[in-house]
């Protein structure tokens, strides 16, 4: 249950929709992840793309995580919020010159480079600035992550990384590039991965390609295995925190590495998804020929995942403990049939004004919001405000 009775009272008259962030759960999730990683000497960079809400980022920064960024603006935000430059990586398949220059000027830890051409551009820009750019080469290992095809990134057909057939020429470009220092290899095969065997297969590929480079006399300091650990969208209350122990243990066991080699992770969703819920109000109830609809005041403009990936999010009433009695299609106000959060969702009989939570929305929720239909800016509520402020 998301809210107790006092909290229910307090949220009843708030303007909706809003993102509710449970800072206690965020804290506990980060603690568990950090503990499991530190125990094995692993480094975790939080992938800002999952959620760059300032308040959440500050908590994440304060726990000692690094930052994995995919735009110049994310790099700048990480710097502004206190992440130290030597804990910032910059990834992405299409970095602009402006973004590369900004990151070089900040002296970030490393660029995760996605193509030979990008390597050449970074070398040229670094040379103009008179600096050495540290880079990790992103290799496309051709592994199926068994997840939604839109968030699969490690197959030959995906646009990401350098295909293994081009590694020979990549290695020779790197050897000649005077302003680029290769420090690591980077892999990321997809997101919302729940099949742990995918990570075992990834370890096998990492070992293989690390050896390949070492046999050619290139020392690799950093093995960056990306992110992708999934969360339980079906049962957010039973599994609020992902099993970080098992996840890190797989890499600990299956990744071959020398003592001087660091293992880096770029976790996004696993660190923040369960801490966020989208709270929305029923505007209208409608019964069609075959259907009961709840028209709510949040739409695909606030949470795009169901419309974009047919993603499942648990939907529940937050203002009652009544048992479900009706199956509703829960839809938003946007003029698109894809603006639907869930079909045939079992819920208690509901009326205009009732409050609904769309759970597990802390990752890729707020950040993917849009202004389509000139909708309002996204609003938030943080759990500490709810617990402490008597006059919300
Ligand atoms: N590293 C790289 C290179 C990535 O591309 C991503 C995510 C991550 C790390 C973080 O992955 P995570 O730990 O969050 O799985 N909008 C989609 C997800 C897109 C993921 C993109 N890349 C969704 O809502 O499911």
From TrEMBL:
<dbReference type="InterPro" id="IPR022644">
    <property type="entry name" value="De-COase2_N"/>
</dbReference>
<comment type="subunit">
    <text>Homodimer.</text>
</comment>
<dbReference type="InterPro" id="IPR000183">
    <property type="entry name" value="Orn/DAP/Arg_de-COase"/>
</dbReference>
<keyword id="KW-0457">Lysine biosynthesis</keyword>
<feature type="binding site">
    <location>
        <position position="309"/>
    </location>
    <ligand>
        <name>substrate</name>
    </ligand>
</feature>
<feature type="binding site">
    <location>
        <position position="364"/>
    </location>
    <ligand>
        <name>pyridoxal 5'-phosphate</name>
    </ligand>
</feature>
<feature type="active site" description="Proton donor">
    <location>
        <position position="335"/>
    </location>
</feature>
<feature type="binding site">
    <location>
        <position position="364"/>
    </location>
    <ligand>
        <name>substrate</name>
    </ligand>
</feature>
<dbReference type="GO" id="GO:0008836">
    <property type="term" value="F:diaminopimelate decarboxylase activity"/>
</dbReference>
<feature type="binding site">
    <location>
        <begin position="266"/>
        <end position="269"/>
    </location>
    <ligand>
        <name>pyridoxal 5'-phosphate</name>
    </ligand>
</feature>
<keyword id="KW-0028">Amino-acid biosynthesis</keyword>
<feature type="binding site">
    <location>
        <position position="269"/>
    </location>
    <ligand>
        <name>substrate</name>
    </ligand>
</feature>
<dbReference type="InterPro" id="IPR022643">
    <property type="entry name" value="De-COase2_C"/>
</dbReference>
<feature type="domain" description="Orn/DAP/Arg decarboxylase 2 C-terminal">
    <location>
        <begin position="18"/>
        <end position="362"/>
    </location>
</feature>
<comment type="pathway">
    <text>Amino-acid biosynthesis; L-lysine biosynthesis via DAP pathway; L-lysine from DL-2,6-diaminopimelate: step 1/1.</text>
</comment>
<feature type="binding site">
    <location>
        <position position="305"/>
    </location>
    <ligand>
        <name>substrate</name>
    </ligand>
</feature>
<protein>
    <recommendedName>
        <fullName>Diaminopimelate decarboxylase</fullName>
        <ecNumber>4.1.1.20</ecNumber>
    </recommendedName>
</protein>
<keyword id="KW-0456">Lyase</keyword>
<feature type="binding site">
    <location>
        <position position="336"/>
    </location>
    <ligand>
        <name>substrate</name>
    </ligand>
</feature>
<feature type="modified residue" description="N6-(pyridoxal phosphate)lysine">
    <location>
        <position position="49"/>
    </location>
</feature>
<keyword id="KW-0210">Decarboxylase</keyword>
<dbReference type="Pfam" id="PF02784">
    <property type="entry name" value="Orn_Arg_deC_N"/>
</dbReference>
<keyword id="KW-0663">Pyridoxal phosphate</keyword>
<comment type="similarity">
    <text>Belongs to the Orn/Lys/Arg decarboxylase class-II family. LysA subfamily.</text>
</comment>
<dbReference type="GO" id="GO:0009089">
    <property type="term" value="P:lysine biosynthetic process via diaminopimelate"/>
</dbReference>
<dbReference type="GO" id="GO:0030170">
    <property type="term" value="F:pyridoxal phosphate binding"/>
</dbReference>
<dbReference type="InterPro" id="IPR029066">
    <property type="entry name" value="PLP-binding_barrel"/>
</dbReference>
<comment type="function">
    <text>Specifically catalyzes the decarboxylation of meso-diaminopimelate (meso-DAP) to L-lysine.</text>
</comment>
<dbReference type="InterPro" id="IPR022653">
    <property type="entry name" value="De-COase2_pyr-phos_BS"/>
</dbReference>
<feature type="domain" description="Orn/DAP/Arg decarboxylase 2 N-terminal">
    <location>
        <begin position="26"/>
        <end position="273"/>
    </location>
</feature>
<dbReference type="InterPro" id="IPR009006">
    <property type="entry name" value="Ala_racemase/Decarboxylase_C"/>
</dbReference>
<dbReference type="Pfam" id="PF00278">
    <property type="entry name" value="Orn_DAP_Arg_deC"/>
</dbReference>
<feature type="binding site">
    <location>
        <position position="228"/>
    </location>
    <ligand>
        <name>pyridoxal 5'-phosphate</name>
    </ligand>
</feature>
<dbReference type="InterPro" id="IPR002986">
    <property type="entry name" value="DAP_deCOOHase_LysA"/>
</dbReference>
<dbReference type="InterPro" id="IPR022657">
    <property type="entry name" value="De-COase2_CS"/>
</dbReference>
């Amino acid at each position: 249950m998301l809210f107790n009775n006092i909290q229910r009272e307090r949220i009843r008259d708030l303007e909706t929709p809003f993102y509710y962030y449970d800072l206690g759960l965020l804290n506990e999730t980060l603690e568990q992840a950090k503990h499991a990683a530190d125990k094995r000497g692993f480094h975790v960079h939080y992938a800002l793309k999952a959620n760059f809400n300032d308040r959440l980022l500050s908590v994440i920064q304060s726990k000692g995580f690094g930052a994995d960024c995919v735009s110049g603006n994310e790099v700048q935000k990480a710097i502004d919020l206190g992440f130290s430059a030597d804990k910032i990586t910059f990834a992405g398949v299409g970095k602009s010159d402006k973004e590369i220059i900004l990151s070089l000027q900040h002296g970030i830890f490393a660029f995760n480079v996605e193509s030979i051409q990008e390597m050449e551009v970074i070398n040229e820009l670094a040379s103009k600035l008179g600096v050495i750019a540290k880079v990790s080469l992103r290799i496309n290992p051709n592994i199926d992550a068994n997840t939604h095809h839109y968030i699969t990134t490690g197959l030959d057909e995906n646009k990401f990384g350098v295909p293994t057939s081009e590694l020979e020429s990549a290695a020779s470009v790197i050897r000649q590039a005077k302003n680029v220092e290769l420090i690591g290899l980077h892999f990321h095969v997809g997101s919302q991965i729940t099949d742990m065997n995918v990570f075992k297969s990834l370890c096998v590929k990492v070992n293989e390609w690390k050896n390949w480079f070492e046999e050619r006399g290139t020392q690799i300091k950093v093995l960056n295995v990306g992110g992708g650990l999934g969360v339980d969208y079906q049962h957010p209350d039973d599994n609020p925190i992902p099993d970080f122990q098992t996840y890190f243990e797989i890499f600990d066991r299956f990744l071959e590495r020398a003592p001087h080699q660091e293992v880096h992770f770029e976790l996004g969703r696993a660190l923040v998804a369960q801490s966020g819920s989208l709270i929305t109000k029923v505007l209208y109830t409608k019964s069609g020929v075959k259907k009961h609809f709840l028209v709510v005041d949040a739409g695909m403009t606030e949470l795009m995942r169901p419309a974009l990936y047919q993603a499942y999010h648990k939907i529940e009433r937050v203002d009652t403990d009544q048992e479900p009695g009706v199956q509703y299609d829960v839809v938003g106000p946007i003029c698109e049939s894809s603006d639907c959060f869930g079909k045939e969702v079992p819920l208690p009989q509901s009326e205009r004004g009732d409050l609904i939570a769309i759970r597990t929305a802390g990752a890729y929720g707020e950040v993917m919001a849009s202004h389509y239909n000139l909708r309002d800016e996204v609003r938030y509520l943080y759990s500490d405000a709810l617990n402490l402020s008597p006059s919300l």
